[in-house]
Amino acid sequence: MTVAAPGVDFKLQARDVRKTFVTRGGKQVVALDGIDVHARPGEFVSLVGPSGCGKSTLLYILGGFVRPDGGSVACDGAVVRGPGPERGIVFQEFALFPWKTVLGNVEYGLIERGVPPAERRERARRYLAMVNLAGIEGSYPKELSGGMKQRVAIARTLAVEPDVLLMDEPFGALDAQTRAMLQVELMRIWESTRTTIVFVTHALDEAIFLSDRIYVFSQRPARVKAVIDVDIERPRDREAMLDDPAYATLHHRLAQLLRSEESADDGSGRAG
Amino acid sequence: MSLALARAGGWRIAAAVYPFVLVLLVWWQCSAHGLLGNAFVFPSPARVWDSATVMFADGTLAAQTLVTLGRVLAAFAIAFVAGAAIGILVGRIASVRAALRPLIAFLFPTPKIALYPAMLILLGLGTQSKIGLGVAEAIFPILLGTAAAASQVETRLLWSARALGTPESRLLWRIVLPAALGGLMTGARIALVGALIGVFLGEMIAGADGLGHMMAVSYRTLRTADMYVAVVTISVVGLCLDRAFLFARERLLGWSAESDFA
Amino acid sequence: MTAADAPAESRPNPLLPFTGIAIVLLVWEFSPRLGLVSSGSVPPFSDVVVAAFGLFADRDFWGNLAVSAGRWAVGLILAIAIGVPLGVAMGRNRVLFALVDPLLTMSYPVPKAALILIFVLWWGAGDLSRIAIIIMGCLIPIVISSYHGSRAIDNRLVWSARALGTRSSAALFAKIVFPAALPQICAGLRLAIAISIFTLLASELLIRQSGIGSYMFTFLDDGQTPQVWACAALLATIAFLLDLGYVRIVHASLRWFEGDV
Predict the structure, then answer these.
(1) Minimal CA–CA distance to A272: which of A16, A69, A58, A21?
(2) C240: domain range?
(3) A-side interface with C, Cβ within 8 Å?
(4) What per-residue confidence (pLDDT) applies to B8?
(5) CA–CA gap between residue A142 and residue C257 (Å, rounded)
(6) What is the mean pLDDT of residues A199-210?
(7) Which of A171, A168, A160, A232 lies closest to A193 in space, CA to CA?
(8) How many CB atoms lie within 10 A of CB B208?
């Protein structure tokens, strides 16, 4: 478990983050118990762990949507106090504005930035082209497939050129083929923009394919159990990777780490 | 632990009671300072209470309330049975739905009260026209609620029942009716209020007895305190009916507790 | 799969709707003529139609209708202006909800129409009391549906907006909360339209000063039965058309919505 050494330049850094929830019955549940996570500029970092372990909560804290009860989050050295366009977010349920067209959605952040109409339109079109969705600008979200919606969501976030892209199991609601396709798309986009990405998932193959580093979380109360470097060379081929022995070793190791978490959860992991 | 429960219960009671307290306080203060008019036009709660006790003592209040209540219950009962029956037919039988749909679509948004003068002609100035208006107000929520719920009974549910040996004739009773009950009850709650409004308004506009008539007479004879008695009484009746309905629904439909508001 | 997905051969005859209407009209026409119903109470359909045309030609009909329409419009617009923001705010703010909800729950079974004469007592028989009662009548469905609309909003929409640069609560409210709640609000408005028309008529039947309600009642007093029925039928038609028009407009404006209004 590496702790960030002072003076090193991190794009996004969480130090000793803690979060406790109070359930309806009045019980205190510790969700995050002192988390140290960081991402260097241009890095692709994944957070994996058993369901309900709090990795999404950590992501929301990183984004500034949720306040931690302890510890701090810094983005480019500045403390994160609330959400903002420096930390873009993409959700599993797409969260597109249904009353706006595709173009309207992608332009939203640009309007907030005060970008003039002509430039705004051109930029929006450019990002839609980047996610391979040119030509559907006038459609409403209800007319799109899941994969298309998610690509619009990505384009919308990228259009404001955030410093960090936070992704909360973005491909979880999609079928296997679309998911695989979007993983490849995301890789292509990342390699051209080199945005720092923090990616939450519980699919191990996805995490290995996409990331430079993987944080493995324990069951609630969550701690960072391990940090794994993914040493597979880039650019990675999704099919070919499966035959790489390094992949198999990594997958095995991750699965083992997670399995011990799942079995530890048989009654003993419950807090309070 | 028990303290937390007690506190939660306390909050609940407070929430339920506070509107009445608030209304009473505002009423009292407004009348004390003559905010909405003088003591004649806006009597204090105390004066209204006095009037109420007088009317209660000589029996008029109870008598009129019973008259109105009887009509409301009659209207509700008729609307319930007719609405549910038609609703199930409309919900389950496509040809019935097709034949009746333009009629229902036309009549549903109609202000039923526009039909009241015609009802007066048809049914006279007595009880029947009041019940008529009550039924007109109450029947549509029940009909539509039942139809919607009945039409959504899962075909698979019916198939399962058939496969388990339920004869066709009993399908309606054993499967459709319980499934439609939820929608029926939601509609029925609205219908109860509708019946109350219909009867009360009918009595106010043209009648010889009942709380609505009492209100109209008090207005014409300028017995303003009695007007307030009428309003408070009908409000209490409405609240009690609503509570009674919810209670009955809980009993009958424990398995589908629908929360109408929160 | 529901009853609506019935296989083709059991799909109903498309002529059935017309048959339904035709039967009703035929019964209406002939029952009085055949003495099944007293023609003094229920004039034959054709007589009613003739009377309706008579009303069209009457200046007073249109004058009264205009007066009524004016009151109705003002009352409804005010109810919307008060009720929608209140309901939406209640959906986002638990304290406000806790304060207002018990009041609404309490007043729900109370017939607001009962207050008509009280309002007249306070404010006279003019437009103020009519408008006030209309507002009272349709405020609750507007508030309830606005509340549900704003409660049902996916919080992730708000978060996405914040992550795209929208900062102030007011901006979030206007740009995200309100459009997202709009379908539910529109559903509640549909109900409010019907209730407001009803309340307006009730007030006019009760206090016969002017307006289409009192106009209709005059015929009753004069014993002109076909006119009473004609007026009722016309009012029913107007209400029906308003409702139909409203639904059409909402469907056209809410093209993006994935459900039913």
Answers:
(1) A21
(2) 63-253
(3) 60, 63, 65, 82-85, 87-89, 91, 93, 95, 97-100, 108-109, 112-113, 140-142, 153, 156-157, 160, 162
(4) 62
(5) 7
(6) 92
(7) A160
(8) 11
C16 domain-assigned = no
Distance separating alpha carbons of residues B188 and B79, to the nearest angstrom: 9
Residue whose pair of structure tokens reads 């219960």 in the numeric block: B9
Partner B, chain C 35-64, Cβ-Cβ below 8 Å: 40-42
| Confidence (pTM) | 0.80
Our separate counts of H helices and E strands in chain A read 8, 10
- Residue C82 contacts by C-beta under 8 Å, 6 or more apart in sequence? C135, C139
Q: For residues B9 and B231, give the distance between their C-alpha atoms in angstroms, rounded to a whole number.
A: 31
8 Å CB contact between B217 and B168: no
Instruction: Report how far residue B208's alpha carbon sits from residue B211's, in angstroms, rounded to the nearest whole number.
Output: 10
- R_g of chain B, CA atoms, integer Å: 23
- pLDDT value of residue B261: 35
Question: How many residue contacts between A and C have a Cβ separation below 8 Å?
Answer: 71
| Residues B57-85: tens digit of each pLDDT | 888 888 889 999 999 999 999 999 999 89
Cα–Cα distance measured from residue B13 to residue B25, given in angstroms and rounded to the nearest whole number: 18
Q: Which stretch of B28-32, B104-108, B215-219, C203-207 has the lowest confidence by average pLDDT?
A: B28-32
Flag whether pLDDT at C225 surpasses 90: no
Alpha-carbon span C110 to B210, nearest angstrom:
16
Partner-chain contact C258 A89, CB within 8 Å: no
Cβ-contact B187, B225 below 8 angstroms: no
Residue B176 DSSP label: I
Has residue C17 been placed in a domain?
no
Compare A17 and B9 and report the one with higher pLDDT.
A17
Cβ atoms of B195 and B75 closer than 8 Å: yes
Residue C196, token pair as written in the block: 């407001």
pLDDT digits (tens, 9 = 90+) for C112-137: 888 888 888 888 888 888 899 999 98
C109/B109 touch (CB, cutoff 8 Å), yes or no: no
Q: How far apart are CA B205 and CA B214, in angstroms?
A: 11
* CB distance C215 to C231 below 8 Å: yes
pLDDT at B4 (0 to 100): 60
Rounded-to-integer distance, Cα B90 and Cα B146, Å? 9
d(CA C51, CA C222): 14
Phi-psi domain of A64 (left: phi exceeds 0; alpha: psi -120 through 50; beta: other) = left
Residue C20 is assigned to a structural domain of this protein: no
Out of A83, A97, A100, name the one closest to residue C163 (CB).
A83
Residue B257, pLDDT above cutoff 60 = no
Mean pLDDT of B98-111: 87
* Cα–Cα distance list, B255 to B15, B188, C72 (Å): 26, 17, 42
SS3 of residue A40 by DSSP: coil
In Å, how far is C91's CA from the nearest CA of chain A? Answer: 19
Examine residue C108 and state whether it is found in any structural domain, yes or no: yes
pLDDT band of residue C76 (cuts 50, 70, 90) is very high
Tell me the domains of chain B and their CATH numbers. Answer: 1-42 (no CATH), 56-260 (1.10.3720.10)
Tell me how many domains chain C contains: 1
CB contact under 8 A, B102 and C17: yes
Strands, E, within A91-163: which ranges? none
Query: What gap in Å lies between CA B238 and CA B76, rounded to an integer?
Result: 13
Q: ipTM for the complex?
A: 0.84
What pLDDT sits at residue C10?
57
Q: Per-residue pLDDT averaged across C166-174, rounded?
A: 89
Which domain CATH number covers C152? Answer: 1.10.3720.10
- The 8-class DSSP code of residue C190 comes to H
Per-residue pLDDT, A271: 42
Average pLDDT rounded to a whole number, residues B47-55: 84
User: Is C165 in contact with A156 (Cβ distance < 8 A)?
Assistant: no
Q: In the block, which residue shows the tokens 């705010």?
A: C89
Tell me the one-letter amino acid at A208: I
